[in-house]
Amino acid sequence: MMELAHQVHPVAAELVAAAAQGLRSAGADAGGGGGDEGDEPMYDFRVCRETWFLKVLTSASEKYRQEKGTPLPRNKARLYEMAVEAEFGTVSQEVANLRGLISRVAYLNMQHQRRQFDMGHVREALGSDLKARYDRIAAKASWVELSRGGLIPFVKVIVIPRAAGMHADDDGRDDIEVEDLIFQFKNRGVQEFLAAQVLVRELKVEPAAVKMWSLANDEVKGSILDTSFYEHMLSLLGEMQHTPKELFPTSTFSNNSLSRVGVERLATMHTTFPHLTVLDLSNNLHLNSLKDISGFKWCHTLRDLRLRNCVNLTGTLEDIVG
Questions:
Q1: What is the pTM of this model?
Q2: CA dist., res. 188 & res. 240, Å (int)
Q3: Which of 80, 112, 163, 308 could make an SS bond with 282 (beta carbons 3.0 to 4.6 A apart)?
C-alpha cells in the first residue's frame, strides 16, 4: 500500500501515506467493538472494515493521469468531501434519504463533544432536521431497520446487551431492542467533516440559534479554539473554501484570554483561505513568545496585529516571520 504513495500525483502523496498508515492500525476496530475512545488518535484516518476514502483517492489519481488536469484533493477537507459524495452515490435511495439525518447527528455529536450516541440522540436530530411528522416516522423506521443490517453509511453499531454475557456477535443480536444499541461514526474525521458542513449551513440560515459558534461573540469562538475536541474540525473548516469568511464575517478577532494552542488553531484556520484583517490579542497573559503567533505569517490578509500589554511576550519580529 505504501507503493501507492509513489504512483499518485505529489499533491496527494501525503494523504495516501496517511491513509496507508491508518489502515495498518485499523486492526483494533476490526472486531466491531467500541474500544476505549482514549486509544484513538485525534487525526483519525482509520475506517474499520472500509477503505472507501483510499478508493476515492486512487480513483481521482487515475482520472488525473487519464484526463490531465482533473484536480486531485488539495487537502483533507476536499478528500472527505469526495469520499462522502462517493459513498452516498453508491447506496440505495432509502439510505440516501438519511443523509441529512446522519449529518445532523454528526453535528450534535460535535456540539456535545461525544463520539458514541444512541436512539435518543437520533430522535433529537430528527426533531430538528425533519419537520413533517410523517417524515420523522419514516426516517426513524429506516434508521432502525438499516442499523440492524449495518447499512447506515459511516456508522457502526455497538451493542449494549440487557442480558449478561451477550455480545455483538451472538445469535441473539436480533432480539436486542433498538434502544439498547449504541452507535458511533466509524471514522472521527467523517463526523467532524459532516458537522463542519452543517455548522456553516446553520450559520447561513439562523446564526442566532447556533450554539457551537457565535458570529458576534469572540469569547465563544475562543472557547471552541481552546477545546482540543474541536481541533481537527477547526482545521477542516479552514480548508473549506469561503468558510473562514462565513465564520469571521467582520474579518476581525479580539480575545484577551486565548491560549497559545488556541492561537495556533486560529492561525491554521486562516492558512489555506486567509480572511482575518485585524487580530487583537492585547492583554493576553498566555503568550510567552512571538513564535506563538508565527502561524499568521501565512495569513496574507492580516493588516493589523495588536499585542498591547502582553506583559509576558518576548522575542523579535524574526520569530514571527521565521
A1: 0.78
A2: 18
A3: 308
Residue type, 219: E
Question: Is the CB of residue 86 less than 8 Å from the CB of residue 32?
Answer: no
C-alpha closest to that of 311 among 292, 290, 283, 280: 283
Q: What are the grid coordinates assigned to 69, written together?
A: 488536469
Grid coordinates in use for 120?
A: 435518543
Q: Judge contact between 271 and 298, C-beta under 8 A.
A: yes
How far apart CA 177 and CA 196 sit, in angstroms, is: 32
In terms of Cα–Cα distance, which of 321, 322, 318, 317 is closest to 307? 317
Q: 3-state DSSP call for residue 260?
A: helix
**Tens digits of residue pLDDT in 130-159:** 455 556 677 888 888 888 778 898 998 887
For CA atoms 86, 91, 96, 102, the dihedral sign is negative
Q: Which three cell numbers stand for residue 132?
A: 413533517
